[in-house]
Amino acid sequence: MSIMRHFDRLCTLRDQLESRLELHEARYCFGSEDIDDGTGSELRERITQMTD
Hints:
Oligomer: single chain
Structural class: mainly alpha
Shape: elongated
Number of strands: 0
């Protein structure tokens, strides 16, 4: 796999994780009670790993 394809794949994955995090946070804002399951912190951690 070329470096550029790998970089593009990682960027796409990071974008997907950020979208999931935004959706997760939006659900929390609208009062969904089952949100405090660690998903937000897990997504933030994965995004940080992808960015590094």
